[in-house]
Amino acid sequence: MRSIIELLFQTNRRRFLIGTLLGVTGSGSFLLLIGFTNRLLQPNARVDITGIALFIALTMTAALLMAMSQHSLARFGCEKAAEIRRNLVTHILATSHKDCEDVGAQRLYAALTDDLDAVSVAIWSLSSLVINVGVTVGGLAYLAWVSPPFFLCSIVILAAGLMLSRMLMARMHANIRTGSVTEYKLHKHYEGLLQGGKELRLDPAKLKFFLHHELGRSIDDLKEHRVRSNLYLALGNAWSNVLLFLVIGAVLTIGYTVLQESVHVVAIYIITLLFLRNPINTIVDLTPVYFRGTIALDHLRQLGLRVTHAADLTVQCAQVSLHGAVTRLELDSVSYRHAGPDGAFALGPVSLTAEQGEIVFVSGGNGSGKTTLMKVVCGLYEPAGGRVLIDGREIHREDRDRVRLFSAVLNDSYVFDFLSPDGEQTPDAATVDRLLREQGLDALVRYENGRLVHSGLSQGQQKRLGLVSVLIEDSPVVIFDEWAANQDMHFKASFYEDVLERLRAAGKIVFVVTHDTTWFHKADRVVHLEDGRVVDTGKATTGLREIAALDGRV
């Protein structure tokens, strides 16, 4: 398991070492200040103007160096935390859509929130941790210089006490690990609460079971983990305070009875130990924060997410406005396989050609592979075999700019509130308003300053807003996956009779996944799938009745 310090040292050791050196220097200045103060406590010491000036100079120097160190390390930590956020996001975007589906939205969301927050807090707290460790080490070195016998006695007591502290910390760290698993489960239950609220309200027995045995149990488990962690932390803090005073008591006892040290040496020791009380407590408080960040960093790596380097998205982000005409899209014996909850699924081999201005309907029963085929077409899924060609050129995953050739409204599509990526001309407000009006969204959605503003839409309205976005994007290849399934007859008729004809006239290649056999005559070609295989294709004017019968049978 790599630590946060290893991460920072590896990525920018120069800045990290400079901040650490400033902290060590500041710690040394404080220790000089303590030594100077102790000299003034001697019976024959005299305070003059020079001494006062030196005291003030040491105080200001120590404070300035500590402030510079903390600011330097904190700024470095904030920049590194922001860099890690960007890197994590770019790696998620660079990861294939299928791999993200396999990991699961809940785990990725937990990584972007809980784990990333824990790493960020650990990085931000590292400046205080480094400074206080420096002060503590320097203080112990000063005590060793003042009286080696005292120091050896103190170290023996501290070592015995730290063994108990280590046991408490080990229990707390183990509890943090199991608690992070419980947090993931709780996120999953939150998703069920928000997305399955209708089903819960319709079934009181299911609601009761979910509330008390699923969500409720996770909440209680997380509470117990937090309570135990805080208990171990409280015991650790209390023991560190007790341990310090045990050392002070030992110094007083041994100093006067065994070593017969002077009152001055004993006073120096006690003053220095009291000064070290705050740094030691800070180290005890921040250690679990640092360890939680290290655990979270390990979680991110277990998901295969890299945090040290940004993924190469330069090709995806380049040529944002590239929407050149596509005259021909071809699938040449394309196949795809994946393992699902109901067993392995195989698509293909599928061979298909779509020309510019052609509308292709894709039909088939549930689980026949319609959505999978569309994801292969637009590149969200990488085919296991065969080739996808655009205008005769084979398209590979490395050809990142291919995503700029496609627009899609899938079943689970998300519509962003901005319609024009950075660098593109903002869509004309009159055009957007007209499209919103056509889709019956003008009373629900406003177009302001290049963004779509609304307070929430139904699934059907969300799909209509996705259609508006697709029409604005003006990509050469357009995919609709069961778009009309959630629409009333007015918008369904408008889609098949008006929208598709406009796309045809604009020279787009359009794929429509649909069960609406009534509208099959609007297609130039109908492709029917069964169990991942094309069982029939035909022109809308020929063989349509047979394809419709197949679709109804499945």
Automatic annotation (TrEMBL):
<feature type="transmembrane region" description="Helical">
    <location>
        <begin position="149"/>
        <end position="169"/>
    </location>
</feature>
<feature type="domain" description="ABC transporter">
    <location>
        <begin position="329"/>
        <end position="554"/>
    </location>
</feature>
<dbReference type="Pfam" id="PF00005">
    <property type="entry name" value="ABC_tran"/>
</dbReference>
<dbReference type="InterPro" id="IPR011527">
    <property type="entry name" value="ABC1_TM_dom"/>
</dbReference>
<dbReference type="GO" id="GO:0015833">
    <property type="term" value="P:peptide transport"/>
</dbReference>
<keyword id="KW-0067">ATP-binding</keyword>
<feature type="transmembrane region" description="Helical">
    <location>
        <begin position="16"/>
        <end position="37"/>
    </location>
</feature>
<dbReference type="GO" id="GO:0140359">
    <property type="term" value="F:ABC-type transporter activity"/>
</dbReference>
<feature type="transmembrane region" description="Helical">
    <location>
        <begin position="49"/>
        <end position="67"/>
    </location>
</feature>
<dbReference type="GO" id="GO:0005524">
    <property type="term" value="F:ATP binding"/>
</dbReference>
<dbReference type="InterPro" id="IPR003593">
    <property type="entry name" value="AAA+_ATPase"/>
</dbReference>
<dbReference type="GO" id="GO:0016887">
    <property type="term" value="F:ATP hydrolysis activity"/>
</dbReference>
<dbReference type="InterPro" id="IPR017871">
    <property type="entry name" value="ABC_transporter-like_CS"/>
</dbReference>
<keyword id="KW-0997">Cell inner membrane</keyword>
<feature type="domain" description="ABC transmembrane type-1">
    <location>
        <begin position="16"/>
        <end position="292"/>
    </location>
</feature>
<dbReference type="InterPro" id="IPR039421">
    <property type="entry name" value="Type_1_exporter"/>
</dbReference>
<dbReference type="InterPro" id="IPR027417">
    <property type="entry name" value="P-loop_NTPase"/>
</dbReference>
<feature type="transmembrane region" description="Helical">
    <location>
        <begin position="121"/>
        <end position="143"/>
    </location>
</feature>
<keyword id="KW-0472">Membrane</keyword>
<dbReference type="GO" id="GO:0005886">
    <property type="term" value="C:plasma membrane"/>
</dbReference>
<protein>
    <submittedName>
        <fullName>Uncharacterized protein</fullName>
    </submittedName>
</protein>
<keyword id="KW-0812">Transmembrane</keyword>
<keyword id="KW-1003">Cell membrane</keyword>
<keyword id="KW-0547">Nucleotide-binding</keyword>
<dbReference type="InterPro" id="IPR003439">
    <property type="entry name" value="ABC_transporter-like_ATP-bd"/>
</dbReference>
<feature type="transmembrane region" description="Helical">
    <location>
        <begin position="231"/>
        <end position="252"/>
    </location>
</feature>
<dbReference type="InterPro" id="IPR036640">
    <property type="entry name" value="ABC1_TM_sf"/>
</dbReference>
<keyword id="KW-1133">Transmembrane helix</keyword>
<dbReference type="GO" id="GO:1904680">
    <property type="term" value="F:peptide transmembrane transporter activity"/>
</dbReference>
<dbReference type="InterPro" id="IPR005898">
    <property type="entry name" value="Cyc_pep_transpt_SyrD/YojI"/>
</dbReference>
